[in-house]
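Hi, here's the filled form for the chain we discussed.

Project: internal
Contact: R.S.
Residues: 129
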Amino acid sequence: MSNIPENLRYSKDHEWVLVEGDVATVGITDYAQESLGDVVYIEFPKTGDSFNAHEAIGSVESVKAVSEIFTPVGGEVVEVNEGINDSAEVVNSDCYGGGWMVKIKMNNPGEADAMLSADEYEEYLSANA
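And the returned structure, exactly as it came back:
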């Protein structure tokens, strides 16, 4: 089974969120990076862009496929991890750490609360694998 840290919230689109105050750090899960294979490029939104929850904010390109990144929470992009395009493999090796994608100042922090817990996400993966 995939690595699923307890302190994060998860979406059924295989994104994770770490909430710190009203800012959510967003990335893709271990399951998502395993499914994609070797990540080679990430397309990001721009700092200052605003999105609603569940909108596509960019894409992850791997040797196997291109997959959209969806934001589980709505708000304004306040930081983008552009450095990972110089070493995109960090998404495969450290998806919950250095492989984060964007930080979003949330319009509604309750959206993160409504996401799946680690146990719920693990159950979702088991039922849909």
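Let me know if anything looks off before we file it.
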